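Before drawing any conclusions, I needed to go through one protein's amino acid sequence and its backbone structure tokens, quoted below without any editing.
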Amino acid sequence: MGGYPRVGPALAGRALARSRRLAAMMAIAQQPRLDDRLWMLFWELADRHGRVHADGVHLDLPLTHEVLSYLVAARRPSVSSALTKLAEQGRVRRNGRGWVLTGEPPA
């Protein structure tokens, strides 16, 4: 490591960022309401992968209902119902293979 002084701090920074993301995902999974879990998950992912547009934050990830169910520790039919509820509230909508988030992120 002596010949590469920047590698150590870079690895430590990545490990710290990973532990913070895991802590956030654990906090999301502890929320009792599924629609809140999904909303928090979308914003957590948007923080890393989202792009801000005039109509909202675009999250261009191929997140199917099944994948979302694994990420929020729920069953797929329940995720579909919660996504319908979020869509009816105008908070999230599909955009091709991705998603668009509107409104303010969770506190």
Notes: The two ends are 41 Å apart (CA to CA).
